[in-house]
Amino acid sequence: MMTVRWKKRVMVALLLGMSVTFFGTVALLRSVQPGESHVTSHHVWKTNNVARVTEFRKPTEPFRHTARHTMPPVAVKVDQQRGAAATTVKPRIEGKGGKAGEQLGISQMRDHALKLNIEEKVLNLEKFPEGLNDDGIILAVQVHNRSEYFKYFITSLQSVKNIEKALVIISHDFYSQEMEQLVAAINFCRVVQIFYPYSMQLYPDKFPGQDPNDCPRDVPRGRAKEIGCNNADHPDQYGHYREAKFTMTKHHWWWKVNHIFDHMRLTQGFSGYVVFLEEDHYLSPDFFHMASMLAKQKLSICPNCDLIGLGTYDKVKDYRSSAKFVRAYPWVSGKHNMGFAINRHSWNDIRRCNQLFCNFDDYNWDWTLQSLGKRCFNRPIGVLVVQAPHVFHIGQCGVHHKQKPGTVMGQCNADSVVSSYRDILQNNQQHLFPEQIALVGTNTISFTSRLAKPEGYGGWGDVRDHQLCSSYANASHIFPRSN
Cα Rg for the chain, rounded, in angstroms? Predict the structure, then answer.
């Protein structure tokens, strides 16, 4: 007869066995490679050596277009040889978005990115169950970790009339509990989160992050070859080597637009407009009204325009003479990169320029997009822009902003900037929500001037960046290269 002591030992052994099986399964799921398939709560199958994923859903579930379900680009499996699975890091805090002492393992952050990208969970769907049709608007918001600005963005988003009719996609490239909590607190519209799976935070010491063996920015090419650094053969056109912190924004932007239009199950079949925003933007209460009106009338007002623009850097304090007017321009990065929108038809034209976009030696996504006019379209990219802004820029710290001690703006204080825009909107509230829009000038789009830097500003000479960037268009590229 089995003694009590042995019964206890048997029970412990059984429990340990179950634990090993469970965690072994989790580890296996983390390491799925292209061409492999494992049964999970998702249904996974193989097509042309590409892992594809779908979930079993009710046919009536809103937003879902089930004709094609492609597994989106996701975080790579942990590099066991380098011990990344056992590494716990303190995320690099570049702003106020992360909390002091906040720690999360790299593998956990990669799993989090993977989970967001596969699940495509719609927050507040029960509260706002109406489906998304081609007359709807998607807001794609690229965020990092500047929570001070993001709070203002969310406040302005909540003030937008009919925002519950939109789908808001938050695209992260930095894990922060504070940013997660800010998104979770949004209860006034439908929200989906995605995560750029190749960010510096997920790869802090290897490409596409900054590998310790990458060449220093300013080392001469000859010296780079002598020391044998990774990318010695590929400086940019000005002789400088890549800096990951500057390449990330372009990578994130191009991945995001590819992912939203071509790889998300939620957006399959959606041919309407996606408005591109950032965490340091501020919206007017009639933002959705203007976006919808421009989307519906763009073709009749300006058939030569590829994009619509809801933001402008022009300082317009009196909307009385400009609220209902729009103008056609060739798209210029420094003027029209805020709150512009693309529909699927225009995206298909841009997407065919994938290789030219990804090989252009400039780390700025907007300057690169502008360059496609002459290099791919053989005509300027046209944009129909409001004359009174409905998107404002409140961020005073970023890639191209340096602190200027002694000035409020230079200290990255958003309060005074937001206050000034609120005053403008308050003073012009009677001119918001115009009932119609009218074109000023001609709808003919032409190159107005020579590009200041037609060859680009550099920072994007590394072939690894070119290859990773161009792979975003290909659904079969799920895991980034390890070298």
Answer: 24
